[in-house]
Amino acid sequence: MSKPSHQTTIPIKGRIVAHLGKALIVEDDEGHTARCQKRTQLEQPAVGDYVEWIRTEEGAGRVEKVLERRSLLSRPAKNGKLRPVAANLDQIVVILAVKPAIDALLLDQYLIVCEFQGIKPLIVLNKIDLLDDNSRESTDELIHIYDNIGYEILDVSAAEHTGLDALRKRLQNETSILVGQSGVGKSSITNALLPDLELQTKTLSTASGLGKHTTTSSTLYKLPEGGEIIDSPGVNIFGLAHVTEQNLAHGFREIEQLAGECKYANCVHLKEPSCAVKEGVESGAISKQRYLRYLKLREKLSY
Fold first, then answer.
1. Residue 270 DSSP code
2. Which CATH architecture has domain 12-66?
3. How many alpha carbons lie under 13 Å from residue 138 in its C-beta half-sphere?
């Protein structure tokens, strides 16, 4: 007598929790995982995507459809196209650190992505235990700019386990991605937030059938308090897709706020007369450093 087939043509709803090379690990509503390939003509799915998939054999399947996304982060790929990194995010957690020096232009680019995608930003300043009088002054000056325009900032020291409870609270019941330049302590924070990280990694490795988890993969981890973190190693910057010289101001909330008061509706806040934004820079209502970074990014986008 032949064994019953594990194949099913009825689509099952699931969520992509890991992307390992060509293999996708999909989790169903009951928490069971399967290693899947995608249907040949299907767009490239991302970790965090909700999908419909069919089971082809025990523990394996094929993703048939990517369901509608509420947000998508992409990064530039080698061929000039964009490669999806994470989908259905509620929050982007930008990790900064006292050392290495804060890259304000990179921070602005992360925040522009948040403004365009409608994803909540959270700025986390790590390694506060390393602050001395000198670095405290320059750090406070920079952080004050973002605090002034309504961005939420948390002070954390992963090394001394301070500020982590406040961070856990902000991650609860949200799907978040942690981003930041290398050396800011993203891994230390992830390890502190996920006491069972090794166990979750092991479970995904078993599901993938690859024996061990590759560090280049994007992975969705479950937080003990509820909510998820998407970890995508090596992703330091996302492409400013759909951002042009003309609409860049939308990514700077304080510039966007004053733009309506400019004399010309199509003002790009460079040399136009009666520009409320330039007046705002002169009066100190808009940070001069932020405005100069806006100009720098406009120049980059013009290429």
1. S
2. Beta Barrel (2.40)
3. 11
Q: List the domain boundaries for the chain.
A: 12-66, 72-231, 248-302
The topology (CATH level 3) of 248-302 is Ribonucleotide Reductase Protein R1; domain 1 (1.10.40)
pLDDT in tens, 182-238: 889 888 898 899 887 676 777 776 666 655 544 457 889 999 989 999 988 766 667
Look up the CATH architecture of domain 72-231: 3-Layer(aba) Sandwich (3.40)
The DSSP secondary-structure symbol of 2 reads P
Residue 229: CB partners within 8 Å, gap ≥ 6? 171, 176, 177, 178, 190, 193, 194, 220, 221, 223
- What is the average pLDDT across 26-47? 91
Whole-number Å distance between alpha carbons of 65 and 152: 36
Furthest C-alpha separation in the chain: 85
Q: What residues have CB less than 8 Å from 98, skipping those under 6 apart? A: 125, 126, 127, 128, 130, 131, 135, 139
Q: Could you tell me the CA-to-CA distances from 128 to 53, 58, 267 in Å, in that order? A: 45, 49, 40
Any residues with CB less than 8 A from the CB of 285 and at least 6 apart, and which? Answer: 254, 258
Distance separating alpha carbons of residues 252 and 112, to the nearest angstrom: 7
Q: Which long-range contacts link 297-303 to residues 24+ away (Cβ below 8 Å)? A: 297/105, 297/108, 297/109, 297/112, 297/240, 297/248, 298/245, 298/248, 298/268, 298/270, 301/240, 301/243, 301/244, 301/245, 301/248, 302/245
